[in-house]
Specification:
Elements lengths: L1 E9 L2 E11 L2 E7 L12 E3 L4 E4 L1 E6 L1 E2 L2 E2 L4 H13 L2 E8 L4 H17 L3 E6 L22 H11 L3 E6 L6 H10 L3 E4 L6 H9 L4 E2 L15 H8 L4 E5 L7 H10 L4 E4 L11 E5 L2 E6 L2 E4 L12 H10 L5 H6 L3 H6 L16 E4 L5 E6 L2 E2 L2
Parallel strand pairs: 1-4, 1-5, 6-9, 9-10, 10-11, 11-12, 12-13, 13-14, 14-15
Antiparallel strand pairs: 1-2, 2-3, 5-19, 7-8, 16-17, 17-18, 19-20, 20-21
Helix pairs in contact: 2-3, 5-6
């Protein structure tokens, strides 16, 4: 394919009248102006008509969409993925909420099977069961377990090489050992749903954790005498901070602080549950009932936020228009930064040699066309 007449926006900057061409699943050439005409033969040509063109979005943390979740069957997973792909997410890590160990193993196996079929599925994320009882969020506290080595090995085996991320409260007994075990197995370890203080978070990063699960949520905030895990993550250049920027989880002013304090190390995520793209109503998140009203998901009968109904193009729009984040930095947070978290050097930029994943957006940053591996998704 060949796309021309775009306003390119990626971590390299903004380029007017941009074009790119593909050879199979890879970007083969880029340029500006009318140079694209020399490579037109054999290409399916799209005129971007001055729209924003970004790399495909990479979501490190999402639980579902379209009325379905990632915890059960492949059909539901595909339905949820279709919603997010229509909004620009070309690569996804599928997140699982806390569940009994046998159920988690079954879900990990199902995601492993799907990932082998579909290269756009990057693998799985265990957001439980190794969480603090004091910061459960939308996880069933009765299903939490301690991060013992036997559980670590069981989950790694069930995922069969496709476990990409695990969230751990490192202060739990054997928590730091589990951080190191997972990191040694090339799993990205995230500190989250945690009562860890500043020192414990630093210890976890020194043992191999490289991510902070939805920063500011399900953890202590920044206090002038108790800096907490967010400050520890901001200070450590090895660590990336996930951020749910939906206007509910984090105030736009706090998002500005995070982007300024950790440039290039904020990854925007959706943390979306089944209601994303499906509207208000009653849903399930793992074993818990969730009510969605006005696009805000809460555990039924409580004020506890239960994931989001966010899509990645909406996160970009909120970042730029409400939080005032520079568009280049905002797009990097959906593309190059998560690619680096996953150590995928072929994703996140519109350059020759990179995967042919791209999103064409209108002036309001709503996805209009989406391509992945050189093929149209929308």
């Amino acid at each position: 394919m060949l796309v021309h007449g775009a306003r390119k926006l990626d971590a390299d900057g903004i380029v007017e009248d941009f074009w790119f061409a593909t050879d199979g699943a890879v970007i083969s050439a880029t340029g500006t102006g009318d140079d694209w005409r020399a490579t037109i033969d054999g290409h399916d040509v799209t005129d971007a008509a001055g729209g924003w063109l970004t790399p495909g979005f990479i979501d490190l943390h999402a639980h579902g969409g379209g009325g379905a979740d990632f915890d059960h069957d492949a059909e539901g997973m595909r339905r949820a993925l279709a919603v997010h792909r229509s909004h620009g997410t070309t690569r996804s890590v599928l997140s699982l909420v806390t569940a009994p160990m046998d159920a988690l193993c079954a879900s990990l196996g199902a995601i492993a099977d799907l990932a082998r079929e579909d290269p756009l599925v990057l693998g799985s994320h265990l957001e439980g069961p190794f969480l603090s009882p004091s910061y459960t969020g939308a996880h069933d506290p009765t299903l939490l377990v301690m991060p013992r080595s036997e559980y670590v090995n069981t989950l790694l085996a069930a995922a069969d090489g496709t476990l990409r991320q695990v969230t751990i409260a490192p202060e739990l007994p054997e928590g730091l050992d589990a951080v190191e075990e997972f990191a040694t197995a090339s799993v990205v370890v995230a500190v989250g749903h945690t009562a860890a203080d500043y020192r414990m978070a630093r210890a976890a990063f020194d043992r191999g954790a490289r991510l902070l699960t939805h920063a500011f949520n399900a953890m202590a905030g920044i206090h002038h005498r108790a800096p907490g895990p967010v400050t520890a993550a901001i200070e450590d250049e090895r660590v990336t901070l996930e951020l749910v920027l939906d206007g509910v989880h984090v105030h736009p002013a706090v998002a500005r602080i995070a982007f300024a304090a950790a440039p290039g190390r904020v990854a925007l995520i959706t943390d979306a549950m089944a209601a994303a793209g499906a509207g208000d109503g009653d849903y399930r998140l793992g074993s818990l009932d969730v009510t969605v009203r006005g696009g805000i998901a809460r555990i039924a009968g409580t004020d506890t936020i239960a994931g989001s109904t966010l899509t990645m193009d909406a996160a970009l729009r909120i970042a730029v228009e409400q939080a005032g984040i520079d568009p280049v930095a905002a797009v990097a947070a959906l593309t190059l930064t998560p690619a680096r978290v996953l150590q995928r050097a072929d994703l996140g930029l519109l350059r020759p040699g990179f995967a042919a994943d791209a999103v064409l957006l209108d002036v309001g940053f709503a996805a209009q066309r989406v391509w992945a591996n050189g093929r149209p998704l929308r």
